[in-house]
Write a structure and sequence with these properties.
It comes from Candidatus Magnetaquiglobus chichijimensis. It holds the Pfam family Phage_CI_repr. The chain contains seven helices and no strands. The chain is mainly alpha-helical and 117 residues long. Helix 2 packs across helix 3. The protein has two domains: 59 residues, 434 Repressor (Amino-terminal Domain), CATH 1.10.260; 31 residues, no CATH class. The radius of gyration is 15 Å and the shape is globular. The model has no long low-confidence stretch (mean pLDDT 82).
């Protein structure tokens, strides 16, 4: 049987392609019991939803209600500034396509490389 989550957590799972409390907790920077508590209450703190929405560039309305476009841009895909180089765009595409472990590895690598520069 597939696990079900409360609506907001379900949309976070959908957006990040996650299905475990531990993975959700890691993605949101909280402890796993916190996610379980949110699930039991069928709610998450508004500040966490706002923070997640901004970080992921998704519509807060969509995250909270499930209605309207998922992304803040006029279309249904996130926008990338015109000043982004092809390499930056490729890196962003790779990050978005990666699973949670891949995203974590990309961030660790990018931060380590930035310190060397």
């Amino acid at each position: 049987m597939k696990k079900t989550f409360p609506p907001i957590l379900a949309r976070i799972c959908e957006h990040l392609n996650l299905n475990k409390n531990q993975d959700i907790a890691s993605a949101l920077g909280v402890a796993q019991p916190t996610v379980i508590n949110w699930g039991e209450r069928n709610d998450i703190p508004l500040d966490r939803a706002v923070e997640f929405s901004k970080r992921e560039r998704i519509s807060l309305d969509w995250l909270i209600t499930g209605e309207g476009p998922k992304y803040k841009s006029e279309g249904l895909t996130p926008t990338i500034p015109a000043t982004t180089s092809p390499d930056e765009t490729a890196l962003l595409d790779a990050y978005r396509a990666a699973d949670e472990a891949g995203r974590a590895a990309l961030l660790i690598t990018a931060k380590a490389m930035a310190r060397k520069a």
